[in-house]
Amino acid sequence: MAKWAIAIHGGAGVDPNLPEQRQEEAKRLLSRCLQIGVDTLKARQSAVDVVELVVRELESDPMFNSGRGSALTAKGTVEMEASIMDGRQRRCGAVSGLTTVKNPVSLARLVMDRSPHSYLAFAGAEEFAREQGVETVDNSYFITEENIGMLKLAKEANTILFDYRIPLPGADTCSASVGSLVPDTSLQMNGLPISIYSPETVGCVVVDSTGNCAAATSTGGLMNKKSGRIGDSPLIGSGTYACDLCAISCTGEGEAIIRSTLARDVAAVMEYKGLNLQEAVDFVVKERLDEGQAGLIAVSRNGEVACKFNSNGMFRGCATEDGYMEVGIWE
C-alpha cells in the first residue's frame, strides 16, 4: 500500500516587508487547511476529494487570492478561475470567468464529473453552475474593502500591483502614494515591461493511500487585469496537472507558466529523463521559466512531496504519512 502525502500553497511571490502579524495569520490558515487534508486522508478519502475540500477552504478565506478576496478586474469586478485533475485516467475539469460561484474548484469538479467537456468559461460556466444547483452569491461577496483600495492604487499607477493586499508597514491602503507601493522594476510579462505584480493563487496536491494522485488550483487572477484575461491556473498542463506518476499545482507569473507548460513538464521529465520528484521540480523551475518568476508544489505516487520557487517566498505547507508536517513562507 502506498503512503499518502499532501502539499498546499497560497501563492508564490511575497512582500519581504510583510508584517509579522500577516505572516502568522497566513501560516495559521495554511496549518488549518493542511490539517483538514491530513484528517481526510487518514479517513481514507480519495485524492481528488481531498484536493477539492482543501481548496474550497482556501477559497472561503479572504487571506489569499481565490474565491472570497479575489483580485479585482479593471472594472472593479471579480472573475475567478479554477481547475482540478484526477490522475486516474487523467480526468480533468476547469472553469474561467466566474462571477457568482462561491467555490470555483467545486464547479471545476462538476465539469469533470457531470459534463462531456473539460473546460467551461464565462456565461457558459455560470449557466452550468445554475443547472447543477451549486451555491452562488452576488459578486460583491468576493470583494473586500482592502482590494478596492489597492485597485485604486493600481489604476493611479496604470499597472498591475504586487502583493496588492499587503501595504508596506505603516502605509494606509487608501492614502499611501503609488510610488511607495509600486517599486521600479524591469520585470516583463509576455515580453512587455510591467511593474511587479501579485502572482497569488491557491492550490493543493495529494497522493492517497492507494497511490492515486490529484491536483487542484484556484485564483482570482491579477489586480487591475483586463476583463476576460485567463491565466495558467485553469489550464491543464500549465497551472495544474496529475497523472499516474505525480500531481502538480503552480503559482506565479501566469504567462511564463503557460509558455513553459510547467506542471506537465514535471511529469514529463520524470517519465522521459527518469528523474525523481524533487529532481524534476528543481529542473523545470531552473530550466523552463526563462526569466519568469513562479513556484510549484508536487507529490509523487510513492508518497514523496516537493516544492520549489524562484520568487521571493511562497506560502506553502506539506505533510506525509510518516508524520512530517511543515508550513513556511521563505526559503
Nutshell version of this structure?
The protein is of the alpha+beta class. 32% of the residues lie in helices and 23% in strands.
List keywords for this structure.
four-stranded antiparallel β-sheet; hydrolase; 331 residues; beta-aspartyl-peptidase activity; alpha+beta; EC 3.4.19.5; eight-stranded mixed β-sheet; single chain; protease; 9 helices; beta-aspartyl-peptidase
Describe this structure in words.
By secondary structure, this protein is an alpha+beta fold. Helices cover 32% and strands 23% of the residues. The strands form three sheets. It has an eight-stranded mixed beta sheet with strand order 4-3-2-8-7-1-13-14. A four-stranded antiparallel beta sheet has the order 9-10-11-12. A two-stranded antiparallel ribbon has the order 5-6. The chain starts with a strand and ends with a strand. The model is unreliable at 162-187 and 192-199 (pLDDT under 50). Heterotetramer of two alpha and two beta chains arranged as a dimer of alpha/beta heterodimers. The record marks 200-201 as: Cleavage.
Which helices and strands, and how do they pair?
Elements: E1 5-12, H1 20-42, H2 47-59, E2 80-86, E3 91-98, H3 104-114, E4 119-121, H4 122-132, H5 145-157, H6 178-181, E5 188-189, E6 192-193, E7 202-207, E8 213-219, E9 240-242, E10 246-252, H7 254-260, H8 262-273, H9 277-287, E11 294-300, E12 305-309, E13 314-320, E14 325-328
